[in-house]
Amino acid sequence: MQPFTFPGPPTHQDFEALIAELLSSQEPDASVQQYGRSGQSQHGVDVVVARSNGTTLGYQCKDVQVLSARTVATEAARATAFPGDLSRFVIFTTAPRDTKSQDAARLATKAAPFLVEVMAWDDISALLMKDLPVAQAYMRQLPLQDVTSAYLWQLRIAFDRPAFTDSAAMEWSHTEQLQAITDVEFFLSTGQLRTRDSSHVLSSLPAASITMEKQSLSKLRSLLSALKREVTPSAKAEIGADFAAVHLRRGTIDDARLKMLGVLNDLLAKHNMPALVIH
Questions:
Q1: Alpha-carbon span 254 to 47, nearest angstrom
Q2: Looking at residue 271, what is its pLDDT?
Q3: Burial class (CB in 10 A: 0-12, 13-18, 19+), 48
Q4: What is the enclosing helix (H) or strand (E) of 115?
Q5: What pLDDT is recorded for position 1?
Q6: Residue 192's beta-bridge partner residues?
Q7: How far apart are CA 8 and CA 121, in angstroms?
Q8: What is the pTM of this model?
Q9: Angle at 41 between CA 38 and CA 30, to 5 degrees
Q10: If DSSP codes are grouped into helix, strand and coil, which group holds residue 51?
Q11: In the chain, what are the domains?
Q12: Which pairing describes strands 200-203 and 192-194: parallel, antiparallel, or unpaired?
């Protein structure tokens, strides 16, 4: 299951604040503080977590495109001078996951009196997916266009399937079309897209989180529900082998389908994204 990839933070300060919020949410019984300020000696530690059992964890935030092995080793060495004993030192970075920095963390652990780890932006995105209140607070600090565009690309993927793009006269199953509608409804509600066998294939955010296009997405959800109401009787008739009844409803199904896709394609065009090809 691939996590939704959140847009990166606007500034290093925003990155530190995000990590502090994530850690506060993950460690509700611990003291979480941003350590020091710019210009002070921080010993490689930006955020400190003091647990009730007496252990202290240090976190460094690196807003960089590439986290080098040398940087990992240097920051871990600096953290050994942190006042008090650290039991764990984690470097959070906006860089993508990379074996070189991960291997460097394992090597640094052998030389340091604490565990050294690297958490890349891919890992941070996965953590945010599990903590929507923090994710939504973070998104409110970002340019909404970036978040909306990322979401709409995922939305396009969710709707790009024959159940929506192909005419009802092309002989696909209305039972399968009904399942596709249910799957996309679930995606709009939860951000999780499933295959026909219930495997997860896409992780995003709930439609309600995308405030910039809230009205358009609400209309799209309403039109999807209208399509479902048209398809349901045909799916039942198909199961009962009443194909005459199925044939009679194909026109109204296509009308509802095309109306819904028209709204979706207008939304995609508004954000300079390719329209779905409709048959």
A1: 56
A2: 87
A3: buried
A4: strand 115-119
A5: 44
A6: 203
A7: 8
A8: 0.58
A9: 85
A10: coil
A11: 12-129 (3.40.1350.10), 143-270 (no CATH)
A12: antiparallel
- Asked whether the beta carbons of 231 and 177 are under 8 A apart, the reply is yes
Helix (H) or strand (E) holding 100: helix 99-111
- State both tokens at 99: 């074996």
Tokens 């030192």 -> residue: 89
Q: Which residues fall within 8 angstroms of residue 35, CB to CB, at 6 or more apart?
A: 42, 45, 46, 47, 48, 58
| Structural tokens at position 171 | 């002989």
Q: What is the full per-residue pLDDT of the chain (279 aa) written as tens digits?
A: 455 677 788 788 889 999 999 999 999 999 999 887 665 567 789 999 999 999 999 999 999 999 999 999 999 999 998 888 899 999 999 999 999 999 999 999 999 999 999 999 999 988 988 887 888 788 777 665 567 877 888 899 889 988 899 887 776 688 888 999 999 998 888 888 776 655 556 667 777 777 778 899 999 999 999 999 999 988 888 888 776 666 667 788 999 999 999 999 999 999 888 999 988
Yes or no: say if 266 and 223 are a contact pair by the CB < 8 Å rule.
no
CA-to-CA distance for 198 and 161, rounded, in angstroms?
Answer: 16
**Joined tokens for residue 204:** 């995003």
Q: Give how far Cα 73 sits from Cα of 4, 19, 236, 270, Å.
A: 30, 21, 63, 46
Q: Which of 134, 57, 123, 53 is nearest to 95 (CA)?
A: 123
Return the number of other C-beta atoms located less than 10 Å from residue 264's C-beta: 25
Left if phi > 0, otherwise alpha if psi is -120 to 50, otherwise beta: which for 272?
left
As a whole number of Å, the end-to-end CA separation of the chain is: 30
